[in-house]
Amino acid sequence: MMLWRAPHMLWLLALAPAVGVFFVWALRRRRQALRRFAEARLLATLAPDLDERRQRWRALLIVAALTLLVLALAGPKWGFHWEEVHREGVDIVIALDTSRSMLAEDVKPDRLARSKLAIEDLVKRLQGDRIGLVAFAGSAFMQCPLTLDYQAFAESLHAVNVGIIPKGGTALTEAIKAGLEAFEGRQGKHEALILITDGEDHEGHIDDAAKEAADRGVKIYTVGIGTAEGDLIPVTVDGQQDFLKDRRGQVVKSRLDEETLQKIATTTGGAYVHATSGDFGLDTVYNDFIGKMEKRELQSTMERRYEERFQLPLLLAFVLLALEPLVGDRRRIRSTAPRRLLGWWRKAA
Questions:
Q1: How many CB atoms lie within 10 A of CB 87?
Q2: For the segment 172-184, what is each residue's pLDDT rounded down to a tens digit?
Q3: What is the pLDDT of residue 128?
């Protein structure tokens, strides 16, 4: 089986026939120019060493060399050997708030949508780290267990929306506990919990949950999304756009509670960042903190490594390009002077 390192480069093979057509056109133009210069019967006398076959051979060598260069550029691979690959990284669990307050639009397009975009960007940067997802509102559950399959994680993230948790409200304690359970009891120095929320908590006991994480050595990095001024929460009621109201009929404004999130981060030895539309803060969390954590071996597998074979077409292309100027446009004409001299000597004798 043959594979290609850069299969998209194979479209350049279309240049080979185009160059071939150009050479055919050029040879015909040259022949027509010679015929205008002199009659056909005189060409053999005026230019006895011109050889169109040699010109065609030179064109063929150039087209073949171009084809081989494109094949080398595409990087053919065949044959393989088995190689043991060790994957090292840390375990990252993201706890994402899915309560109705995440529909507030003080961060565009809204808090939840902006959070999901930021998480997608973070996943694109991961190389060897396992990642899991916990969704929470009034309760919490594991949306995606720790995995190295980033595509599966992306599909789980895509399915997250407001209402995925039947119980309303925001329970940060439940989110922290579910995040700790996702780590499967491993060493805390290789684990990081990222809590993305507006910080509004309706259950209490956050201090106990944060202390439990600290005792296990798990650092919690809190990302506060929203503004201190807050914003109304858009909802749809009987097909009409409206804003969320409390039991007294007053509109509810959701505000960012930075103090609670800062306290969680401080207790566990993590860090707090404030997310905005322009700079969400996950890059800062990963680059400055998680990326510097001690890594451990997460997986060891035997993988096929296909052999690079671009050297063969590249070498053949260089050989053809080296032969091309040696062919020349003209054939060698044997001199008749020695024969004439021999005939004159015989006559003189």
A1: 15
A2: 999 999 999 998 7
A3: 82
CA angle 309, 313, 317 (to 5 degrees): 155
| 141-155, 191-205, 218-232, range with the lowest pLDDT | 191-205
Write out the two tokens for 168. 């309303």
pLDDT tens digit string along 159-208?
999 888 888 778 899 999 999 999 876 666 789 999 999 887 767 789 99
Separation in Å, CA 240 to CA 243, 244, 249, 280, 340: 10, 12, 16, 31, 111
Place of tokens 């994680």: 153
Question: In the chain, where do the E strands start and end?
Answer: 3-4, 76-89, 91-97, 130-136, 140-147, 191-197, 219-225, 231-232, 234-237, 240-243, 253-254, 271-275, 296-308
User: What single-letter DSSP state applies at residue 216?
Assistant: H
Phi, psi of 182 (to 5 degrees): -65, -20
Report how far residue 288's alpha carbon sits from residue 299's, in angstroms, rounded to the nearest whole number.
Answer: 25
**Distance (Å, rounded) from C-alpha 196 to C-alpha 143?**
15
Cis omega (within 30 of 0) on the bond before 76? no
Q: Residue 74: CB partners within 8 Å, gap ≥ 6?
A: 4, 5, 6, 7, 9, 10, 310
